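User: I'm designing a mutation panel for ABC transporter substrate-binding protein and want to avoid disrupting the core. Could you give me a predicted structure to guide residue selection? Please restate the sequence first so the numbering is unambiguous.

Assistant: Good idea. Sequence first, for numbering, then the predicted structure tokens:
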Amino acid sequence: MKKWILLLCLALVVVLPLSACNQNKVETIKLAEVTHSIFYAPLYVAMAEGFFEDEGLNVELTTTWGGDKTMTTLLSDGADIALVGSETSIYVHAQGSKDKVINFAQLTQTDGTFLVSREKIENFEWDQLKGSTFLGQRVGGMPQMVGEFVLKQHGINPHSDLELIQNIDFANIPSAFASGTGDYVQLFEPTASILEKEGTGHIVASFGTESGKVPYTTFMSKESFLKENEDAARKFTSAIYKAQQWVQEKSADEITKSIAPQFKDTDLEIIETVVERYKEQGSFATDPILDEKEWNNLQDIMDEAGELPTRIDHDTLVNTSYAEEVAEN
């Protein structure tokens, strides 16, 4: 009997440390984001507040600057997960990709751009755009498609009722407007607020408010990766959900303090202004579930812009199982 007790104790001495090591194992996730923006505040909160760490994940973040580059990085295994507009998954599917790109967690649920006027306008009406020069976004991207969708909703034909400029690179649009090009411009934050603070432009409307809910930016992975790494995908989604709830509950000031290290060259006052603006218009999704209504709204916007290759069912490119599970628990 003593011999068996001794052997059992020795076995526990060996097994328990190994079990502890497995529980403390940290898994690295390579994440590619399409741009680096305050619009993605919940992601940076998840990193700053330790929500990924709590799930046993180490997230290596890379900014890939552009939808095409981000998707190429994902498809070539340069990233495990991509944060980019859902329209890119539709483009890839339409090209006949054998390994589908699946949207599994939503981060933002509205467009993130604003209409900026060169002149200060007290009571802006969309009809005032007629006959003006409008500095728009890149053809085929969500900002451009949402922009044209909103204009048409207000009875404006963007190709005949105004002079539409779309041949300027994304990074150079703000400087082009600041140097005198265009009467109006469609801009992301914090650029819009920075121009307003400088007196160069004035925010007169929100495309996000006008276009309604849409899966503007989502986390997506190749179907093969999700099949092989379901646990990691679930943990990742859980961390994002915790961050979304944290952002929902906290003030703009608290959120600003959390994400400020990500934007060292931006004034805290500007960051807080932008966070407050996005919170007020409901841009930050409160949970990671990409529902069918949002998915169909996305395709309606793409179709209106003439950029929808083919209509795709929600279940084909969206997996809500992880998001629904973490939201329930």
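For picking mutation sites, this is relevant: The chain has two domains: 26-110+214-328, 113-211. The first helix runs from residue 2 to 23.
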